[in-house]
Amino acid sequence: MHIGIVLSQTPGYSETFFTSKIKGLQAAGFKVTLFVQKHRPEFTLCPVEVAPKVRSLMPLQLLAMGVVFTSLLLHLGTVKRFIKLERNEGTATAEILKKVYLNAHILKAKLDWLHFGFATVAVGSECVAKAIGAKMGVSFRGFDM
User: Fold this and answer.
1) Domain 2-144 falls in which CATH fold?
2) In the prediction, which pLDDT does 57 show?
3) Domain limits of the chain?
4) Mean pLDDT across the stretch 9-31?
5) Angle, nearest 10°, between helix axes 76-88 and 93-102?
6) Helix, strand or coil for residue 2?
7) Buried b (16+ CB within 10 A) or exposed e, 69-94
């Protein structure tokens, strides 16, 4: 079973909750992949997929979006499902394109479970798990309250 954990960044040395959770899942035979916006190079506990960056210069952002959207061509079925789910939620087309870009690293994944480590990192990704055919879990922590 393959579990994806979504965090804003890879856990630091003193952040033992998630490192212990990952080690425990791996010891139980689960494959774990971390999905983050920021990757600390010293984190080597499991594979890490980094979200596409948002650039302040529009020409660079358009180029980055072109590269990311091209990389999603091999996952067109998943992207179509995601777009359909977002449309059913009443999301505007421009917002859907933004969400496809920001969630591209997860939309490419083959997971059984997608777990958001904090509720705040799930905002904007509510339809991703269903689009990739995974079950979804969300942890509510003090930061979310």
Assistant:
1) Rossmann fold (3.40.50)
2) 96
3) 2-144
4) 93
5) 140
6) strand
7) eeebeebeebbebbbebbeeeebeee
